[in-house]
Amino acid sequence: MELYTRPKAAAAMLDVSIKLVYRLIASGELRAVRVGRCVRILTESLQEFLRRNETGAAKPPPAPVSRPALPVASAFQFLPPRRS
To answer: What is the full DSSP assignment across 13-80?
Structure first.
């Protein structure tokens, strides 16, 4: 098995566009290395990506987002006055 693959080959393996492969690399979801002007995707990284995105794969629950509580009055201060 090859250590690296080209974005075009990775796109063909995943049956997606090359543009999507580059977006996955830019977002950090798919690890790649740059050799001069060429981009090469680690085969191991491609396999990890597939494992992480399997349907039915157990995903950890999202971390709760803590937001400061707003007083009720401040939540409505931006609404225009009602006309009767």
So the answer is: HHTS-HHHHHHHHHHTSS-EEEETTEEEEEHHHHHHHHHHT-TT---PPPPPPP-PPPPHHHHHTTSP
User: What amino acid is encoded at 65 in this protein?
Assistant: V
The single residue listed with the structure tokens 């393996």 is: 13
User: Which has more pLDDT, 72 or 59?
Assistant: 59
Distance of alpha carbon 15 from alpha carbon 33, whole angstroms: 21
pTM score, whole prediction: 0.61
> Residue 19's domain spans which residues?
1-55
How many domains are contained in the chain?
1
